[in-house]
Amino acid sequence: MKSLFGRTSPTPPAPSPRGSFTMDLDGNVVFSTLASTFPAQLKEQIGRAVLAAFGAAAESKVRVTEFTVQYAALRITAREMRGAVLVFLMPRGGARKHPVA
Amino acid sequence: MPDCPKILLLDDDQDLLELYRDILQRLPEHPEIRTATSAARAIAMLDADPFDLLITDIVMPKMDGIQLLTIVRQRWPQLRTVIVTAVPGDQLMRRSRDAGVDLFFIKPTTSAEVDTFLSGVSGLLHGKAVDSALTSDRPPQPSSPAPPPPSVPPPPSLPSVVSAPQGPAERPPPAAQPASPLASFCRLEGVEFALAIRGGVSQPAIESWRAERPEDLSKWLRSTLQGFKAVAEPLQAGALLQVEASGPKIRFTMVPGPAADLCIGFRPSLPPEQARATLKLILSRWTP
Prior knowledge:
The structure holds 2 protein chains of 2 kinds.
Chain A: E1 19-24, E2 29-32, H1 40-59, E3 66-71, E4 74-81, E5 84-91
Antiparallel strand pairs in A: 1-2, 1-5, 3-4, 4-5
Chain B: E1 6-10, H1 14-24, E2 32-36, H2 39-48, E3 53-56, H3 65-75, E4 80-85, H4 90-98, E5 103-106, H5 111-125, H6 132-135, H7 181-186, E6 191-198, E7 205-209, H8 214-235, E8 240-246, E9 251-255, E10 260-266, H9 272-285
Parallel strand pairs in B: 1-2, 1-3, 3-4, 4-5
Antiparallel strand pairs in B: 6-7, 6-10, 8-9, 9-10
């Protein structure tokens, strides 16, 4: 149906994800609080990027235990935790104040 | 058990508080969950309202979880308590028990561990007596910090080869050397090194000031930025602005740019707010 104003409304942007997941060192997502609608493939892609960043740090002999990745619309915090990585996704510019530098 | 039990959740890490809140909301008891980021705040909240359960981290600035438990045992003896820690150890478990904790957990990271954690918390809310030593699904571990995962061995924190002029950060660059903005960045309080990479992946031009092993660092920086850039589009996260990396002895911030990628190394003890302000100043002066 044609819009009253003669044009269709633009598709709203997808909401930024919020939640966390853990990935073991073999690249398996073992726990997640992200919405079930969040694509599993994307979760794995993020987790693999995080594992690769930790792995590359180790190869460079730099002991890194946490990454904070700032995108224009999203913040990812990744922590090494007992043989797994814990990954937090948080929209940027939200109501919550983040203590992380 | 009360109709809607009240849980007070204490951790100085806001991200973990959010995670535990999400996890605890799965409890069939549908508890009311309130959070605090310091022991002092938790005490004020306990003073103001009755709670059924306190879940606390151990390692926190100013007052740690065990000190808090000691106070809780004296002032609110009926309050059930759970310790959740990332630093397992016999000594810590013993101290927690001495302080009267009901449950002792290692921070859960897998679904099975989360289930165990929730079962323990649920049991406490129903008033079941639980032996804290039996509730951990892992055997007791030595009191030293947990070892890193195999992919991240604990090497010396920073490489030993120095590729740029040495000396105190306040010292001006030698007169014979051309002035470099990186050198001026290194004179700022709390900045340990500065490194810039220009050019393509195959032939990068590296400029470093006081960075140790700049070639290795550059390789890592480039691959890390590439990896995180690659997930920006499918995530619809917008442009990659910066990546911070921290560890026991390091704190770096990497900033990608169209002409050059910049990496600033900060003194690890520098307060985060100061590091943020310094980085802002550096980026305002940075013209790659």
